[in-house]
Amino acid sequence: MKDRIIALLSRLNIWKAPGQDTRQEVWTVVWLSVILIVAGMMWEEAFGDTLAVHETHTWQSDFAASSGPTIYWPVMPGIEHNPAGAPKSFDAAELAYTAWSWSERIDRPLHFIGNTTSTGGSSTGKITVNWIDAFQMLATGRDVFTKGFARVWYYLETGIIAGAEVYLNSTILEGKCRIQAAAHEVGHSMGALIHSNNDHDVMYSTGATDCRYAISAADVSLLQYGRHTCHAELTMEHDIYLPNVKHEGVRKSALLKYQGNMVWKLGPMKAIEDSRECSIASMDSAGVTTITDLRGVGGRLTKVKLAPMADDTWSLAWAE
Whole-model pTM? Predict the structure, then answer.
């Protein structure tokens, strides 16, 4: 094999045997470059496709108008966390919840891996969550109030995602707004290249009302995985997100905010525009609300009854 390669290079005047004329050496670099380029093209054609990068214009309304390519993960990635620069108040359970919430909605095994010292990259097969402060955010060309952004590597020919990085603003994010920002950017990292037009959705351009972070059917519809589950969600603050409940004759999404002592207060409601949002909650004439599928990180309840009290509050009457 070695002799054949030497013979080929000799014919191309880019191999000098002992005593051979050296006048053609000037062409050596040129011919080697041509061979490498052609070989690279042949390898690309035979074994892979072109790796591209898509960076979200994060939390800006003009991004909602751009559709971009169709991209997806063929196998759900893990979410890993780079703790460098993380706020002192940050708890890794927030990312574990984010992974669980998306996984429950799309019915696919997205999971939280844990901490890493890596910053991710184009071919990690993972979503890596990183932190930068407001001044570092400014250095990326965004303003200091940008909550975060995602950078996604994918193959142009197939749309398959190879890896993704999320960067969150450690200066301005806290509490449930931080969870929402993480959920939003993970949504982009899984292939959502546009924003929702409903301000109660996590994938709304500036985030859902009151930093709501429970995933909706509209959020899931921005991805390429084709299905979503139908359930109410118990959040990290013990709020209850109802994706579809009939209220005053209209189907709405609602958030019951936990007040303590097994009492919830009705928060903002929004008329449902997405017909894919199925119903798992009903309210009878006495105002008793029944939830047939309530899920939290710790488990699942198939029958929950909330009895009405004064001032748009409900107390837990039954659960199983």
Answer: 0.76
Residue 304 token pair: 């929950």
Helix (H) or strand (E) holding 300: strand 299-301
Element (H, E) at 264: strand 263-271
Handedness of CA 62, 99, 200, 224 (dihedral sign): positive
Q: Hey, what amino acid is at 193?
A: L
Residue 42 identity (one-letter amino acid): M
The answer to whether the CB of 198 falls within 8 A of the CB of 70 is no
Angle, CA of 168, 173 and 176, to the nearest 5°: 110
Q: Look up residue 72 and give its DSSP letter.
A: B
In the block, tokens 């525009």 appear at 273
Class at the top of the CATH hierarchy for domain 51-221: alpha beta
For the chain, give every domain's residue range: 2-47, 51-221, 232-319
* Token reading at 90: 């940050």
Mean pLDDT by 10 residues, the chain (320 residues): 45 47 50 46 37 48 46 91 93 92 86 83 82 93 90 88 92 89 93 84 78 84 78 87 76 85 85 66 82 86 88 84
